């Protein structure tokens, strides 16, 4: 039994899913994987299910009907993980933009005192590969904007490669997490900090996907931009007690 679960939300990731699963299971640290698939029409779920016999007891899949959003997929996965008493619970993309080897570094950070470990593109310069300059600047200045509005010190506020200790997800009222796009990543960090948890950044190199299609859209970006202000205002009326 592993104490570590990697949650990977998927929608049309047939080009990447088998490779990412095999890479995670090749690591020296034993991890379990939960795939949360939102009804991928390209057969992503079928590929995962074909691997379950090979990785029996280590690879799990939960299928949902239709595309319901990144945030709801992770909340679904968090609740699934808490029911099974995993101590370290990870968020990771399926497209190799997050290097599976860094799972070990994120876990080590939590073992050594962090409550949330964030795989950070910006804590040591700008470590992004294969992104056009416009997207690098958008992401970098988005994090600056989040820091300005929220007054948190996280350099990579929109990062989606993270490890949580179980206690964090048990404490945060997951049903009250509002955002479903990339603003979800900001809201989870902000909420963890407001509850007094120790959130640390671990430097990673982020490599843009080479296969499959990005899920970023102007709607997702707009939710994040406007949602940060709303989130900050709402925090003035919330009681953050563990």
UniProtKB/TrEMBL annotation:
Q: Which Pfam families match?
A: Glycos_transf_2 (PF00535)
One biological process term from GO is: glycolipid biosynthetic process
Matching entries from InterPro entries are given as: DPM1-like, Glyco_trans_2-like, Nucleotide-diphossugar_trans
Task: Determine the domain of life of the protein's source.
Answer: Bacteria
Domain Glycosyltransferase 2-like per the UniProt entry, residue ranges: 6-170
GO CC terms, sorted: membrane
* Family the UniProt entry places it in: Belongs to the glycosyltransferase 2 family.
**GO molecular function annotation:** dolichyl-phosphate beta-D-mannosyltransferase activity
Q: Can you name this protein?
A: Polyprenol monophosphomannose synthase
Recite the UniProt keywords alphabetically: Glycosyltransferase, Transferase
